[in-house]
C-alpha cells in the first residue's frame, strides 16, 4: 500500500509516519520509484504498536525505540519483553536512598515481596513506586500495616492471574506488547473507576440511612 | 498557639496559612492584640485537612473551599461528605454525548452498575471515567467483554468493603475526610504498584523457564 493508505488505516498523519521512519521506529517501505515506496501489513502492525505506546502509554520516543528494538530481537523471551514494556510505563519515581524514611519503606517493600514469594526483579520500578506511597502515607500519620495490605494484595493477584492467563502463548510479539501496554494503562483506569464506585456503594450501604 | 507555632506543627509556611485565612479556608484566630492572634487544635486539624486535599489530592483552591464548607455543614451526612470529597478527585473526564461511541460506552456502564445493583449516583464522575476507558479500549480493537470485567469488579468490591469497613462511625468529620482522600489517592498507587508486581510474578511463573 502507499503511504497515504498507511496513514488512513493507522489513523496517523503522513508527516508522523515519516518522522517515525527517520527515528528508526518504522522500517522504510520498499522503494518503487525515486519518491515512492510500498508498505505492507507489518508496517501497519508496527504503527499500531507505536501508537499504543505513544498515545496510551504516553511514552517518549526513546522508550518506544527501546521497546521496538526488543520486539525485533528474538533472543529476548516474551516474558522479558513484556517486563521491558511494563517497566517503561509511568508514573516514574525517584529513589531517595539518602532519606531514612525512604530507605525504611523500601526495606518494608522488599520484605513484603520476599514474604509473598513473588518473582519481581530487584530493579523493578514498582518497588520504588510502592515505597514512595508508603512514605507519603507515613508522613500523613497513616503508616501501612501489613493486615491493611492484605485485600490489595489479594485483589492484585486476582487481576494479574486473569490478565496473564488471557495472553495466548503463541501470540505475535508485536501484538502481545501492544495488548499488554493497552491493558496495563486502560484497565488501570477501569480498576480505578470500579474501586471508587464500589466505595460509594459500600459507603451508601453502611452510612446512608436516607436512601 | 501563635501563628509561628501553627506553621511549625502543620509544616506550612506562615504566608500559606495567611493565604488560606484570606480565602476563607481557615477561620481567623482569636485576636489578642492589633497584629496578634491565637490559634488552637481545630486550626491545626483544618490545616492538616487542607494540606491533604492540596498536596495529596492535588485539588484546586475552589474545590478545597467546597469540601471545607461541607465539613462545617452538619446537615450534610457523612456519606454525602465522603462522596463530595471523592467526586472532587481527578482524573477529570469530559463527557462526549455527541460521540456515538461515547454514548454507547456510557450506556454499557450504566447497565453494568444497574446489573451489579451498586448504589452509585447517576451524576458520579466515575461513570464517565469508566466510559472513557471503554471507548479507548474499543478504539484499540480491544472491546470490553463483561466476563473480562469480572475479576476487576471482584477486586474492587474486596478493596472497598475493607476500606469503608475500616472507617470508624463516630469519627470526627474533618479527620474522616482527610483519611478518605489520602486513602483514595495513595492506596490507589499502592494498588497500581502491587498489580504490576503481581503481573510480573504471574508472567514469570507462566512464561519464564530460565529462572
Automatic annotation (TrEMBL), chains A, B:
SUPFAM superfamilies tied to this protein: Putative DNA-binding domain (SSF46955)
Residues in HTH merR-type domain copies: 1-70
Protein keywords: DNA-binding
CDD domains: HTH_MerR-like_sg5
InterPro entries: DNA-bd_dom_put_sf, MerR-type_HTH_dom, MerR_fam
Keyword Nucleotide-binding among UniProt keywords: no
DNA-binding among keywords: yes
Lineage: Bacteria, Bacillati, Actinomycetota, Actinomycetes, Streptosporangiales
Organism field: Actinoallomurus vinaceus
Name of the protein in its database record: MerR family transcriptional regulator
Pfam families attached to this UniProt entry: MerR_1
